[in-house]
Design a protein that fits this description.
The complex is a heterodimer. By secondary structure, chain A is α+β, with helices and mostly antiparallel strands. Chain A has helices at residues 15-26, 32-39, 43-55, 78-96, and strands at residues 30-31, 59-66, 69-76. Chain B has one domain. Chain B is elongated. The chains are: A alpha+beta, B mainly alpha.
Chain lengths: 98, 211
């Protein structure tokens, strides 16, 4: 059986990026602190991966104020969703092929 | 390129993160079990201490001629209902908090907030309607309104927690509609919906997910 792994993206080999994308494809939006708690990573680590995902057009941010506190929430773009789902499908294909 | 076992690990992480971030998994079966026991105890207490064993809210007991002398009873019943509600909410929060600590889950997350909003909008609406119906003496609609709006809340909030909650909601709605058709058996439907169903659901969920 030929396994189609064309959907696989090196970009998602990093587990933090994988985690961010997993959360954003099943939630309309998620804020920075909740992402941080859900993934158990540091501010700096999360921020650098978010930046990379944003620069590649996979996610978008929305800044707002809750009371006086600034709050940034993130949502996945259509392109990001497609790319991630293709990656997920390729992973499943690989596992099934053994 | 990663090895196969790493891909497998990736998939496991994706699945876990998706589930934990989109579903409120701290909800404990024990919450349902004890809420059900409290509801049955509350109903038994009301029937035997206030109502001398007569059937509650059946329309026959609260007939129009007796309403004036029932004013103090009405207040007692409402007060007891509130105590039962507070106790049931209290144990629900307690056991869910305990489960979240044991399983290392965060209890206050975006999805737990969504779960609560989706549950409480129908629930508070039903609660207000309940008070209106109760004080306007529409006895026959009091129990159906409690069961139906509670069921709608569960159906609504079921999207953000275990699927079983959705089905529990459907059964509560059905029980509510049946209690509207057969108002004489109102208290029995109430005990079924808030007591027995919660106990069965709670035990089943506890055995399935928490043991």
């Amino acid at each position: 059986m030929k396994v189609d792994i064309s959907g696989l993206s090196k970009f998602f080999e990093n587990r933090v990026r994988l985690g961010i994308m997993s959360i954003l494809v099943v939630n309309d939006s998620y804020d920075f602190n909740s992402l941080k708690e859900a993934l158990g990573v540091t501010d700096g680590n999360l921020a650098s991966h978010i930046k990379a995902l944003e620069e590649n057009g996979l996610i978008k941010s929305r800044k707002q104020f809750i009371g006086k506190k600034p709050n940034t929430s993130y949502h996945v773009t259509e392109a990001g969703k497609q790319k991630f789902m293709a990656h997920l499908k390729a992973l499943e294909e690989i596992i099934k092929s053994q | 390129m990663e090895s196969k076992s790493e891909y497998f690990e990736d998939l496991k992480i994706i699945k876990k993160v998706m589930e934990e971030s989109s579903r409120f998994l701290s909800l404990s079966g024990l919450s349902g079990l004890f809420a059900g026991i409290i509801a049955l105890a509350g109903a038994a207490f009301a029937v035997y201490s206030f109502l001398d064993g007569k059937v509650l809210l059946s329309g026959g007991f609260f007939s129009a001629g007796k309403i004036r002398e029932l004013d103090s009873l009405k207040i007692k019943l409402i007060a007891e209902a509130l105590v039962v509600l507070m106790l049931a909410l209290g144990v629900s929060v307690f056991f869910s908090y305990r489960k979240s600590v044991r399983k290392g889950l965060k209890i206050w997350t975006p999805v737990s907030k969504r779960f609560l909003v989706n549950l409480f909008v129908p629930l508070v609406t039903g609660g207000i309607l309940f008070m209106i119906l109760y004080f306007q003496h529409h006895w026959q609609l009091v129990i159906p309104s409690m069961l139906i709006f509670y069921g709608l809340g569960l159906v609504n909030a079921g999207k953000f927690t275990f699927n079983e909650v959705f089905y529990l909601g459907l059964i509560e709605i059905a029980a509510g509609l049946l209690s509207a058709i057969f108002p004489v058996y109102g208290i029995i439907f109430w005990c079924f919906g808030f007591g027995l169903l919660h106990i069965i659901y709670g035990l089943a969920m506890y055995r399935k997910y928490e043991r």
